[in-house]
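User: Show me a protein chain along with its predicted structure.
Assistant: Here is one chain, sequence first, then structure tokens.
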Amino acid sequence: MSAALEPGWLNVLQDEFEKEYMKELKSFLLKEKETGHTVYPKGADIFNAFNHTPFDKVEVVILGQDPYHGQGQAHGLSFSVQKGVTVPPSLKNIYKELETDIEGFKTPAHGNLTQWADEGVLLLNASLTVRAHEPGSHQGKGWEAFTDQAISQLSGQKEGLVFLLWGKFAQNKSALIDETRHTVIKSAHPSPFSAYNGFFGSKPFSKTNAILIAKGKKPINWQIS
């Protein structure tokens, strides 16, 4: 699996692939396939978050929990779906917030966030795979140790990142982040169950850009074409 990782990320995560938990995770994923289960995303997309946003290019981190578990949805970026797939409710709410937060933002006709990833926004899920139609089915199998290490490496080796932590699950990851070096912006999750409890009106995107500009960095172009 390590060969599929962008070189900068491989440099900081290489040791993880030799650890027992990763060997057990690989065995688990092979068994899922052997027993006829469909796993999302497809193998070539599992590490898309890392490969679209190289370690040296990360400026913003948006943490998700699980890949989408419906057919054709997940492609390795948190909150993002492939073009041609119905935009999920959480992402619809993200777009709603962008319309009020970023002047001139127009909601795109699709839910593919690859442009953000290519801009330096790491769209990272805590678990990188899921069994079809079974949310949470690959939690606790080892992915969290791997993605926690990715967050820790970003925290320890980079400066001035912005972490957007939406909802309790993501906010629990703040323990991995050195807030003397980075900015953490917390709010409710954009899910329809919680968006009105503090996500709408939180202005995470303009806040992120203001922080990046203050640090002499290029702001994120949140508009998706």
